[in-house]
Here is the input.
Amino acid sequence: MSGAKLRLPLRALIAALAAVLLISGCSSSSERPRDEPAEAVAKVSFQPGTGAKEVSPTARIGASVQRGAFDSIELRNPDGEAVEGQLAADGKSWRATEALGYGKTYSWSGRATGEDGKPVEVRGSFRTVEPDRTIHATINPTDDAVVGVAMPISIKFDEPVEDRAAVQRALHVRADAPVEGSWAWLNDRQVDYRPKEYWPARTHVTVEADLHGLALGGGAYGQADLSTGFDIGRSQIVKGDVRTHRMVVVRDGEQVASYAASYGKEDDPGRNTPNGTYMIMAKHPVEIMDNPEYHYRNVRKTWAARFSNHGEFIHENQDNAAALGAVNNTHGCINLSAADAKAYFDSALIGDPVEITGSAASMPPRFDVYDWLLTWDQWQGKSAL
Here is the structure.
């Protein structure tokens, strides 16, 4: 009897322990982790990526959101000024509409809401390139100018340009009449555009030079964009055959004047009026002329139209009246009477062509404006593309 009494409590104890273990095991397997918030479905991306450096100021700058739309978005410069931009109609993308500055950090801010109704903050930044130096450029003709049919477009830089091909790719010329033309580098600081033939008369021309943000080589970048819009006037061409002692003016295909003239002295190479196609570069009612080699200084002449930086003008020389129409005895200029010089001066535009023929010498293409002294093949050979 005593043995049976000892076994009964043991069975009860084992059963109790088993129950405890069963309860403990069931409790452990049924416990769930605390719920975490589901991630918002909207995803914002940037161009360039946030944290980007050495970004071109003219690179495509924008932001977009997937599975959502922007409630607000801004890009600000270090001074807190907002960059101009445009939000798409569907609110899913934004792009900058202005060029950025050099060496600046730009920061994004705003908010987007996803398809799940959950907000996403817009945050990020990038930095634009810091040039070693910037190169300034100018363009001619200037806005609203009216010029002659031989006028080139000229862009001049204040430092030499290494990547000339990059510059040419950033230059755009549009004319409202069909024109075949080309850019040519006259030196490492100047690129000119001229048509194969003279510009069509009464043509409007626009030029855009997208230089801001453009890498010019050697760590240099373009300082600013340039643009101009100008008009080609009537066609007026000076025909100067030195053998005739006349200066003929042809306007819109018709001869309108034939002036008695004296050209450069033929038997002195230093005094020839050289063959070549030039253009009127400048006009001055009074010009003071010097040529120490030929022993004259401070000579005052009127109605002077310069057509070469070598020193040639069309101008009045009443003191040489006896030679006009008869003898070539000047120092290279085209002498006219006072009345004829004024008549021509008043009719001339900057950029009008002057065609000299019949001379004993030709002008070498090395002075400041020699665009029309080159053949078309020679001109195209100076392109960087």
